[in-house]
Amino acid sequence: MKIVVKKEMESIKCGDLVYSSLLREYGFVCHIENKYYFINREFENWSDPYEELKELIHKTNLELVAKNKKLKVSLINEVI
To answer: With 1 labelled, which of 26, 34, 55, 63 sits at a CA distance of 20 to 30 A?
Structure first.
């Protein structure tokens, strides 16, 4: 998945709004356990989205969380 940002990978932080050229939409970055995830904008509506997502992932798995929350969640493996 290609995420288009104007920053270096090291400076991407949780909550940054980025554009995915693959999905052709904007979303948020979530950094969990040394991995960066792209989450679509509906994620913005949660009260404390990053903490909630981290907690859910530890209890279950990312795919299940994404399905239940109707989120598009993708691992970011390239930043251009």
So the answer is: 55
Q: Model's pTM, two decimal places?
A: 0.49
pLDDT digit string, tens, across residues 54-75:
666 665 555 565 666 555 666 6
Ordered strands of the 73-75 beta sheet: 73-75, 35-40, 25-32, 17-20, 2-4, 78-79
Count of all residues that appear for the chain in the document: 80
Cross-strand pairs, 26: 19
Residue ranges of domains in the chain:
2-79
Segment 9-56, tens digit of pLDDT: 556 666 677 777 777 777 777 766 677 777 776 655 555 656 666 666
CA 8 to chain centre: 16
